[in-house]
Amino acid sequence: MDAWLQLSSSRSGRALDATPTGIIQFDIDLQGNEDTDFDDLKQMVITVPECIYALRSPSGGLKFGILTDFQQNIVPPVPARGDVVEGAGKLYA
Question: Distance between CA atoms of 36 and 49, rounded to whole angstroms?
Answer without folding.
Answer: 23
